[in-house]
Input
Amino acid sequence: MLESAATEVPTPMKPFLLLPVLLLLVPAIGTENGLAQSKADLVGTWKLISATETTKKGEVRAAYGWQNQQGLLTYTADGRMMAITTKGGRKPLSVSDNVGAPAEERAEAFATMTAYAGSYTLNGNKVIHHLEVCALQNQVNTELVRLITKLERNSLALRTVNMGPEIAYRELVWERISSGSAP
Output
């Protein structure tokens, strides 16, 4: 009696065939969005284009509540970095001495800027800032992890997650203003 090919039951994938498939997938695990980069991709100075935060309810707003933000971010080839961001339209101090200015003016100036510097390491799509100096002394000798959500020749987007009970993440978008190499 002849058996019909239509009645054959497919056999499951052989275990020895599964291993090569898994080996192809493992390198992609942990490189969220496939954005693993090299330090050379980051090297240069970047100008802040936008800074937003998204609440856990999905509301998108200006990061820190600041409008017209300004900022610069620099990565060097030897693993150093510096970042400063400010609220746009900051009022100048009434005197040019930051120590002699009235306390209210100094408090406002301090509350409308962030600045830090140190070294950085790159791990897949994460850039880790190792703070050595910071406007907020409490953050010295800490690490700030940034997820690279976009990195193209002249565009960089960094996301900060776990920002507290209300904010899901902040995303800062930067435009390259120098490559760190001679023209």
The chain has a mean pLDDT of 83.
